[in-house]
Write a structure and sequence with these properties.
Blueprint lengths: L4 H7 L16 E8 L6 H7 L7 E7 L13 E6 L7 H15 L4 E5 L3 H6 L2 E3 L2 H7 L18 H13 L4 E6 L1 H16 L5 E6 L17 H22 L3 E6 L6 H10 L3 E2 L2 H6 L4 H17 L5 E6 L2 H4 L1 H16 L1 H5 L4 H9 L4 H9 L2 H8 L15 H18 L9 E6 L10 H19 L5 E6 L9 E6 L4 E6 L2 E6 L9 H15 L15 H4 L4 H10 L1
Parallel strand pairs: 3-4, 3-6, 6-7, 7-12, 8-10, 8-11, 9-10
Antiparallel strand pairs: 1-2, 2-13, 4-5, 12-13, 14-15
Helix pairs in contact: 3-19, 8-9, 9-20, 11-18, 13-16
The structure holds 1,6-di-O-phosphono-beta-D-fructofuranose.
Length: about 550
């Protein structure tokens, strides 16, 4: 098969990983920390997760003499890639594979095809040296594919267990985001409840960067995605600064939290950038958001700078209080009247029907939105009940609103400049890029850590690697009980146990660094041009972790 020169070169990249994981497996063990509890709804979650709730934090360390699990026993493990693609996923599998084979060359690894449905439907491929070697340090999830199926019905649980038993698995690794790791937590509990010893371990994947807490500093994939988007934003900023005729409205992926947008802003210094969490906190309306963009356009026009860059997080609309209320009402109404809606012919009829069920404020807002935005809000939810925000054209909504506002100001003689806008959406471009060195190292380290958690007999845990702003050899492999990250949330019309998404903390060092600079960026041209991801060369170009990770760690020091 023909491969690119970069792919060929990346095959020989040796991921770096925590020193303790380079030891012979029989010489390492887990130290037990304190018992944990869920972040919210402790009573309800304890009752739901009878076998797995409240376990202790663990950390990988050198064995100190005590007897423990036989780390060299033969293991049979299944692995699932779940949810959206994130660079570094193949390296998690490679790390797990290498860990298993080092522990015992007779161990076997099976990759379930197409995400969780591979487990439910018993479709898999055995992963051999040849398969793993063909995917080392590559992006994408094409080694085994991915999917968003939620293991939910009794029949799906039963067939998942059946598949795992048929393959005589000792353990299953689910590599995914918050919803997929919720799947892992629920399956771990279910297996124990059925008297099965098959272990389930999770791994923090998502470009969105919202699967994090005080122990998980970021998810793998985030670094590569933000570096890819920042290169593109920098290129556009330079083009804007050269042609001096367009305002570029750039929507950035990241379903809900604005970590991606914040990191890209720190890397590129746009003129205007919204952080959804601040919009919610300050209860900004769509009108107030438009005011802020117009203020920058008008200020820059005073210096004949009829160009600029606006960054918009993908999930923004869900954080504008009036839109959030509308979406909540729509979620419930769509779930409750699924049958009635299915019988109606088109969008106009759907909107008319829904308007009879919504509050007056929500009705008014739905009726006032451009047709394409209303249609996108009514589209099918994903299997986890989420609105598919990547399909809502927020950048176009805001461009249209700014255009209208400036036209009105012009009529009133309050604005005399020009305004011409272009919209972009950067999302899928960043999800399958060749992983940066950081993500290649981090993914591989997570895979090796998952092996240790499995070999140590744990279930209901997520693999975690800490101290990420230090060189990889000093990173600290650990495990957290999945229930620790859970709470109850309204999904498809009822309260379900799920892992809580970690939103941008407005008191954090990264947000403060952004807030301290943005007024200057709004008026001046202060763009930074980060350029493309560098894989070979000096460490300051190739190996830096995300700014958010660096700033948060500095903030704690
Ligand atoms: P995960 O949470 O599964 O990692 O997905 C991340 C994401 O890329 C979001 O940023 C985006 O909103 C969504 O997936 C898009 O979903 P899809 O791949 O189904 O279009």
């Amino acid at each position: 098969m023909d491969i690119s020169a970069l792919q060929q070169a990346r095959y020989s990249y040796q991921p770096r990983f925590p020193r303790v994981l380079s030891q012979e497996p029989s010489t390492i063990a887990l130290s037990q920390g304190l018992p944990t509890q869920s972040i919210e709804d402790q009573g309800a979650l304890k009752a739901l997760f009878k076998h797995t709730y409240g376990k202790a934090l663990v950390q990988v360390q050198l064995r100190t003499g005590q007897a423990g699990e036989n780390m060299n026993r033969t293991l049979r493990v299944g692995v699932i890639l779940s949810g959206g693609q994130a660079p570094g996923g193949h390296n998690v599998i490679a790390g797990l594979y290498d860990g298993l084979k080092r522990g015992n060359p007779g161990s076997r690894l099976y990759g379930f095809l197409g995400g969780p449905s591979g487990l439910i439907e018993n479709t898999y491929r055995e992963l051999s040296d040849a398969v793993i070697d063909a995917y080392r340090n590559t992006g994408g999830f094409d080694m085994i594919g991915s999917g968003r199926t939620k293991v939910e019905s009794p029949a799906q649980f039963a067939s998942s267990l059946e598949t795992a038993k048929q393959l005589r698995l000792d353990a299953l690794l689910i590599i995914g985001g918050d919803d997929s790791n919720t799947n892992a937590a629920v399956l771990a509990e279910y297996f124990l409840d059925q008297g099965s010893p098959i272990q389930v371990i999770g791994c923090p994947k998502t470009i969105d960067g919202d699967l994090k807490n005080e122990h998980i500093q970021t998810s793998f994939g985030f670094d590569t995605a933000v570096k890819t988007y920042s290169e593109l934003i920098g290129n556009i900023a330079r083009d804007a600064n050269s042609a001096k005729k367009y305002w570029h409205f750039i929507k950035l992926m990241g379903r809900s939290a604005s970590h991606i947008t914040l990191e890209c802003a720190l890397k590129t210094r746009p003129n205007v950038c919204f952080i959804s969490e601040e919009v919610a906190e300050k209860k900004w309306s769509l009108g107030q958001i438009v005011d802020q963009i117009c203020a920058s356009v008008i200020k820059r026009a005073e210096h004949k700078e009829y160009f600029g860059v606006v960054l918009i997080p993908e999930g923004l609309v869900e954080f504008v209080p009036e839109m959030k209320q509308l979406i909540l009402e729509l979620n419930d109404t769509l779930a409750r009247y699924e049958g009635e809606l299915a019988a109606l012919p088109g969008l106009t009829e759907h909107i008319a029907f829904l308007c009879t069920k919504l509050s007056p404020a929500a009705q008014g807002l739905l009726g006032s939105l451009p047709g394409n935005i209303a249609r996108e809000l009514l589209m099918d939810r994903d299997p986890h009940g989420n609105v598919q925000v990547s399909r809502i054209e927020t950048e176009k909504l805001l461009m249209g609103m700014v255009e209208k506002r400036l036209a009105r100001l012009k009529e009133q003689g309050l604005y005399t400049g020009k305004f011409s806008a272009l919209g972009h959406f950067f999302g899928y471009e960043g999800r399958s890029a060749f992983p940066s060195n950081f993500d290649a190292n981090y993914g591989y380290s997570l895979g090796l850590t998952a092996f240790v958690l499995i070999a140590s007999g744990l279930t209901g845990y997520i693999a975690c690697v800490k101290n990420l702003s230090a060189p990889p050899e000093e990173w600290v492999p650990a495990g957290l009980p999945l229930t620790m990250m859970m709470h109850l949330e309204q999904r498809h019309g009822s309260r379900k146990p799920v892992i809580k998404k970690a939103l941008v903390d407005l008191a954090s060092a990264p947000f403060k660094a952004f807030a301290a600079e943005r007024d200057t960026w709004a008026c001046t041209t202060s763009f930074l041009f980060p350029g493309g991801i560098q894989y070979f060369g000096p460490p300051e170009l190739c190996d830096r972790p995300p700014r958010i990770v660096e700033l948060e760690q500095q903030g704690k020091a």
